Amino acid sequence: MAFRKNFFICLFYIIFVFFTAMGTSNADNQTMTSLSKGQVIYVPVYSHIYIGNRERPFLLAVTLSIRNTDLNNPVVVKKATYYNSQGKLLEEYINTPVTLEKMSATRFVVHESDKSGGSGASFLVEWESEKPVSPPIIETVMIGAQTQQGISFTSRGQVIKEK
User: Fold this and answer.
1) What's the confidence (pLDDT) of residue 148?
2) CA–CA distance, 37 with 127 (Å, rounded to integer)
3) Are 36 and 132 in contact (CB under 8 A)?
4) Which terminus of the chain is more exposed, N or C, with fewer CB under 10 A?
5) Closest Cα to residue 155, out of 24, 31, 47?
């Protein structure tokens, strides 16, 4: 009888902890969807990675993707700057601000033959909006192929400054 009572008490605590953790997860998700009027985003880039014991470079094409996730409002992308592994500015991809209407996207490409960025390259993307909006998703997609081997992966941007 005592075993059965202890079993149900343990089961109750397990269920309680499970649902408490679920509630915390939902609170974290709400924080992730908070509105913003602008941000500066750091996005990791790999213009090449190293393979094999001799660390041979494997060249990659890079696509920087900027996606307006707001259902009602545009966002304006003011800057998309490309830096190499040493932090040296390589290229400004935007000369005039680019307006992304609701649910639209734009992209910028670093060609596979351009290995100037290195394995520690990055983009800084700056965007803003007149109204608080759902922040855009900003990520890079890297892809490359040599002989019969191919590789692809993504990197998601990280907010480094809120406006």
Assistant:
1) 86
2) 8
3) yes
4) N
5) 47
pTM exceeding 0.70? yes
Question: Residue 64 contacts by C-beta under 8 Å, 6 or more apart in sequence?
Answer: 43, 45, 80, 93, 107, 108, 109, 110, 123, 125, 138, 139, 140
Q: Is 120 left (phi over 0), alpha (psi -120 to 50) or beta?
A: alpha
Residue 135, CA distances (Å) to 37, 47, 63, 163 in order: 8, 26, 19, 12
Residue indicated by tokens 């059965």: 4
Q: Which of 138, 69, 145, 61 is nearest to 107 (CA)?
A: 138
CB atoms within 10 A of CB 53: 5
